[in-house]
Amino acid sequence: MMIKKRLIISNILMLIVPAILIVVIAGGVLEGFTEIYGKKIRGLNDENGTYFVQRAINSYSKSLKNIDMREESFEKFGETLNDAGYNLLVTSNENTIFSNLTDEDRDSISKLQSDILSSSDSMVLEVNSVSLIKNTITKNNKSITLLAVKSSNIINKDHMRTEVRSFFVSYMGIVFIIALLIIIFTNGILSSRVAKSVIKPLELLSYGAGQIEEGNLDFKMNYEGNDEFAKVCSDFDKMRIRLQESVHMQLKYEENRKELVAGISHDLRTPLTTIKGYIKGLKDGVANTPEKRERYHEIIYNKACDMDMLVDKLFLFSKLDTGKFPFHFEIVNCIDFFQSFFVNAVDEFKGKGLNLSYENSCDNNILISIDIEEMNRVLVNILENSVRYKTKECGNVNIIIDQKEENIILKIKDDGPGVLEENLNRLFVSFYREDSARTNPGEGSGLGLSISEYIVRAHGGTISAENMNGLAIVITLPISNYEGSIYES
């Protein structure tokens, strides 16, 4: 899952999950608080309210039938009612025998209808802020009336208000603490999961950077996620591979460069040593006849020409290597170009001990885009290589040209000794010779096939070597579809 989507879902869950849990838990807490405070309020009403006083008067009334009516007894019972906020009035045949009513109580009673108070019925009456509980019994043919009066319910209301406030504060405090814990817990879990999904690839990238810093490029970025980091880790691994290839290429380049320097040193030292030897012979008078001096001069000149040719090849190789060589491409007919080259080369290489044969099976209208001069150089370099390594006095080279899909295939095959299979790919390395000791300086500079590879690749083609009862150099060149155009680079 993408990190962006994961963050959106996580943020939604951070809102929804705590909200659901808070509502559920708050409902449960409310139920518990309601039960607790309901009992408390009911208890308050039972112990200090109307129901308690009514029960107390009924019980006391029953006991009066069996005990003497004394003022001490009424005072004690009155104190009990006072705890509930009520005052007591006891009358016998409407004559007061005990009273602890206040002026406020009397004033409140005076506002009630007289028939309500004079009735012999028991009653519970609440009018406005006045609570009145009456019970009448008959004892010794006398009507005994117990009247409990509470002039104001302010005390109960204050109690109720206090209880409600206590309930609200306690409930909201607990709900707030629970909500805070739920939010912290939920956000902690979700944030931890999101953080792990980010930290894990970051740690992997950090590990990769550390490995690269230490020079280890053989590790792999094995990230199995499918989020944005998957592409980052994949690109990082591609960078590692490219860097590894670059390092290997650099090492190979350095190796080739060392071989290049060694080759240059050797191939320059050999003719220089020869030149120095013959010049010393001239200087010391060894060449004491005109014929010897002429031969010495000829040898010195030829060695200087060899050195000049080597320097030219080095210069060409350098420009090809740096990509600064100017090619001049032209559209030419495949049959005409190779036929022309063969006609010019057959006599030249016959004088070097090489018999050339030519076969071209391409259609007459096949066109190729080439730099004519540089492609001639490639063909000459390959033939010169066959001349150097021929094992017979007169070697044979077959030039075969064929068409395959959108390419032409050029195969130049000699009947020489061939090359060891493990060395085939190294033929195109600069200054490479199978004669690793380089004991035969007459075998060339070792740059010919390397230069040929650069030129063929610049033409969009490929070049390779095969063993086919001798050495075969195979070149592929793309067929051009644009007649008459001239390309320059």
User: Could you list the spans in which at least 5 consecutive residues all have pLDDT below 50?
Assistant: 43-48, 435-443, 483-489
CATH hierarchy class name of the largest domain: Alpha Beta
H/E element sequence? HHHEEHHEEEHHHEHEEHEEHEEE
Q: What CATH architecture label of the largest domain applies?
A: 2-Layer Sandwich
The oligomerization state is single chain
Q: Give the helix/strand class.
A: alpha+beta
Distance between the termini: 49 Å
Strand content: 15-25%
CATH topology of the largest domain: Heat Shock Protein 90
- The amount of helix comes to 55-70%
Quickly count the helices. Answer: 11
Biggest β-sheet description: 8 strands, mixed
Radius of gyration: 59 Å
User: What is the number of independent domains?
Assistant: 3
Domain HAMP: 196-248
EC number: 2.7.13.3
Pfam family, one: HATPase_c
Catalytic activity: ATP + protein L-histidine = ADP + protein N-phospho-L-histidine
Protein described:
With 489 residues, the chain is an alpha+beta fold. The chain has 3 domains: 3-46 and 158-201, no CATH class; 49-152, Beta-Lactamase, CATH 3.30.450; 326-488, Histidine kinase-like ATPase, C-terminal domain (Heat Shock Protein 90), CATH 3.30.565.10. Helices cover 57% and strands 18% of the residues. Strands 6, 7, 8, 9, 10, 11, 12 and 13 form an 8-stranded mixed β-sheet that branches. The chain has a 5-stranded antiparallel β-sheet with strand order 2-1-5-4-3, sandwiched between helices. Strand 9 and strand 10 (407-414) form a beta hairpin. Helix 7 (228-284) runs antiparallel to helix 8 (290-322). The relative contact order is 0.07.
